[in-house]
């Protein structure tokens, strides 16, 4: 489903003009700290990253219904001892908004989690390694969308014996 060009332009213009955001709140997404992740050499593990979207805002899901909307994306840079096997996004929730009442947009609101599957070879060097990255998202309220933002993501992986 594609969003009509007129709706996209209205969203963008309203967003850059400040929108109708009560109290002029800025959209925000925060991430809960991820504890140190233990990964056995030769195995894989799932790392859950929990995020919270500020009240009154939503962000496009990882698979928005329109090519004009910016998807939420997690990019991670892993050390040589670790492989990023998969990133699992939650399904978006279809909602309509006053700026385009006849269209359903796939969005995240409130709390959501993204899972990363990490693997390491059996001969991996034991130790603690940093994983860094960023979550790119576009936040909107009921009247406007705002320019895309990035949120730094980081945690440590400890590779331990089998």
Task: List its traits.
mainly beta, four-stranded mixed sheet, disordered N terminus
Task: Please describe what this structure looks like.
With 162 residues, the chain is mainly β. The chain has one domain: Sandwich (Immunoglobulin-like). Helix content is 7%, strand content 49%. The protein is built from 1 helix and 12 strands. Strand 7 (93-97) and strand 8 form a beta hairpin. The termini are far apart. Residues 1-22 have low confidence and may be disordered.
List the helices and strands and how they pair.
Layout: H1 5-16, E1 29-31, E2 37-40, E3 44-53, E4 58-60, E5 73-77, E6 83-88, E7 93-97, E8 100-108, E9 111-119, E10 127-137, E11 139-140, E12 149-160
Parallel strand pairs: 2-12
Antiparallel strand pairs: 1-3, 3-9, 4-8, 4-11, 5-10, 6-9, 7-8, 10-12
Quick take:
The chain has 162 residues and is mainly beta. The protein contains one helix and twelve strands, in the order H-E-E-E-E-E-E-E-E-E-E-E-E.
Span between termini: 48 Å
Helix percent band: under 10%
* Average pLDDT, all residues: 85
Query: Which fold does the CATH topology refer to?
Result: Immunoglobulin-like
Largest sheet: 4 strands, antiparallel
């Amino acid at each position: 489903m594609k969003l009509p060009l007129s709706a996209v332009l209205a969203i963008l213009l309203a967003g850059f003009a400040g929108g109708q955001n009560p109290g002029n709140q800025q959209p925000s997404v925060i991430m809960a700290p991820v504890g140190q992740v233990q990964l056995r050499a030769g195995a894989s593990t799932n790392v859950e990253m929990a995020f919270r979207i500020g009240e009154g805002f939503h962000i496009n899901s990882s698979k928005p219904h329109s090519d004009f909307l910016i998807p939420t994306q997690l990019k991670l840079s892993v050390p040589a001892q670790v492989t990023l096997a998969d990133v699992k996004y939650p399904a978006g929730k279809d909602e309509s908004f006053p700026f385009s009442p006849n269209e359903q947009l796939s969005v995240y609101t409130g709390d959501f989690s993204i899972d990363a599957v990490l693997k390491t070879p059996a001969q991996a060097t034991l130790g603690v390694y940093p994983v860094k990255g960023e979550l790119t998202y576009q936040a909107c309220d009921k009247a406007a969308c705002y320019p895309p933002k990035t949120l730094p993501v980081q945690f440590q992986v400890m590779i331990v014996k089998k």
